[in-house]
Write a structure and sequence with these properties.
- The structure is a single chain.
- This protein is an alpha+beta fold.
- It has nine helices and twelve strands.
- The protein has a single domain, classed as Glutamine Phosphoribosylpyrophosphate, subunit 1, domain 1.
- The strands form two sheets. Strands 4-3-2-6-5-1-11-12 form an eight-stranded mixed sheet. It has a four-stranded antiparallel sheet with strand order 7-8-9-10.
- Helix 1 runs antiparallel to helix 2, helix 2 runs antiparallel to helix 3 and helix 8 crosses helix 9.
- The longest helix is centred in the first third of the chain and has 23 residues.
- The structure holds aspartic acid.
- Aspartic acid binds next to strand 8.
Length: 317
């Protein structure tokens, strides 16, 4: 049999309920997920690498204002955005990440440039965005990123003095979420990427799990690739993405068991909420979560159509 190719994406987890979401809103999410999964799968099918595919998927979702990454990022307690992203190549364990971004249109593209063109893994704030300009990575004005909905969401939460997962925050319009992708390409290489605006009303300069290699993002060709979403402080304490890999490597577990244990045992026990997407070298995809819903989609070369799902009752892992 030929080498399988496969990709999975997420658009965040949280209080995502079918009975709370009007049909037109469901269609908008469906559209955003469908577009990202199809375009990125086409890259894989056209001999693109896993790194190309995850960057393409995440870029599409960063550009789609319904998701909490790039355009449409949530607002911190000053009313400003700070975005972060990471990407990891399972073929050589090389990685790039960027945090504290205010102007970079596609944080995932900057993370990949840092992996390729610097001797470092993570750059922060002004230094990161100067690096982006030096490498011709597009920058935008603040107005590009902050949608009216984000501003209203923040005003409501700030009045309560609360910090929240995007999908659990008071909603002036759409529910939205952190984005991520994992992929297996035709050469058997795996990659993972994750991008976010973080938590609504977070303290400025707060960094979450998303850009941390091992917590929010990890890939190793031998065992799998993982991208997480949810309350970052919990995923950081669990070193969640790498925990899945090490349960496989040192505990001999199948991907399904390792990802279920992480979400439904370790994360539950700690009191955290969220989910993850993961893929193994055979193309098996797992997408467990312990929140009411998680925006997600996947596509494999043995399927005719992508699988696109949002709610608990449509679990597919
Ligand atoms: N994990 C992200 C963070 O804590 C939030 C999310 O996934 O929605 O920054």
């Amino acid at each position: 049999m030929s080498q399988p190719i496969a990709i999975a994406i997420h658009g965040g987890a949280g209080n995502i309920r079918m009975d709370k979401m009007p049909a037109d809103k469901q269609q908008s999410y469906q559209k955003g997920l469908e577009n990202a999964i199809k375009v990125s799968y086409d890259r894989l099918a056209g001999n693109g690498s896993a790194m190309d595919a995850v960057e393409t998927a995440v870029t599409r979702m960063e550009d789609y204002p319904l998701f909490n990454a790039g355009r449409g990022s949530v607002v911190d307690h000053r009313g400003k955005i700070e975005m972060e992203a990471a990407i990891m190549d399972g073929a050589n364990l090389e990685a790039g990440a960027a945090v504290g971004l205010e102007r970079t249109r596609n944080p995932v593209a900057l993370a990949r440039a840092i992996r390729h063109h610097s001797q470092h893994i993570m750059l922060n704030g002004e230094g990161a965005e100067n690096f982006a300009r030096e490498h011709s990575i597009p920058q935008e004005d603040e107005q590009y990123f902050i949608t009216d909905h984000r501003y209203d969401q923040w005003v409501q939460l700030d009045e309560q003095g609360a910090v929240s997962l995007d999908h659990n925050a008071p909603q002036g319009g759409e529910e939205i979420g952190t984005v991520g992708a994992v992929a297996l390409d035709g050469n058997g290489h795996l990659a993972a990427a994750t991008s976010t605006g973080g938590m609504v009303n977070k303290k400025y300069n707060r960094i979450g799990d998303t850009p941390l290699i091992g917590a929010g993002t990890y890939a190793d060709n031998r065992w799998g690739a993982v991208s997480t979403t949810g309350h970052g402080e919990y995923f950081m304490r669990l070193v969640a993405a790498y925990s899945v890999i090490s349960m496989r490597e040192f505990g001999g577990m199948e991907l399904t068991r390792a990802t279920q244990l992480l979400i439904h045992h370790k994360l539950d026990k700690l009191g955290g909420q969220g989910g993850l997407i993961a893929i193994d070298p055979s193309g098996r995809i797992c997408m467990p979560f312990n929140a009411p819903g998680m925006f997600r989609a996947s596509m494999r070369n043995d399927a005719q159509e992508p699988l696109i799902a949002m709610f608990d009752e449509q679990t597919n892992d």
